[in-house]
Amino acid sequence: MLRKTSYNYFNFFREMIKYGLDSAKMLEKIVNEYDYNNLSLYKSEMKKLEHAADMKKHEMMRHLMKEFLPPIDREDISEIAHVLDEICDAIEEVVLLLYMYDIKACRDDVSEFIIIIKKECEKLSELFRDFENHKRNRDKLLNIIKEVNTIEEDGDRFYINVMKKLFVEKANAKDIVAWRDIYNCLEICCDCCEKVADAVENVIMKCL
Fold this sequence. Notes:
The chain is mainly alpha-helical. It contains 6 helices and no strands. The protein has one domain (9-206): Phosphate transport system protein phou homolog 2, domain 2 (Methane Monooxygenase Hydroxylase, Chain G, domain 1, Up-down Bundle). Helix 2 runs antiparallel to helix 3. The model has no long low-confidence stretch (mean pLDDT 94).
């Protein structure tokens, strides 16, 4: 039986991954409807989501510092919170790079990369729906974690292909630098999602 606490940490995890998924959906919308003249607006809107996630994390940490018996190890709660927050940070960074490099138009393969990130976030949302009962739902959760890892591997392969294409094409130096950094950041988004799955897996493995 889970210990009763004054704060629902599992609901916090669900709220945090919703911020991550909402950020991925916003990034998808930005890229699919890309308007160079709205770059400042895109940056501002994404910042609101990232800031809201930060505030939610700070609120949780205030509770955790005073919590006597959290439902799982204090260090695990802190780690999961940190890597969940990193998803929003990394997705916001993509928009910042589009703004800072003054990107006039998005490359076609960016949308495909974002679909991979969104799939990972959707799987993590599924993961956190049942995480509260992780001892009972161990096998189901481990299967979802495996799916997240598989999607992340798809992201790695896609990253290699788009980077190869970028350097093979006769692009100018400015475009190569800009898109190299943007693709790197998109790949980091995929890695952040995998880190969340790994952190949850670590909690499950402690219960074996």
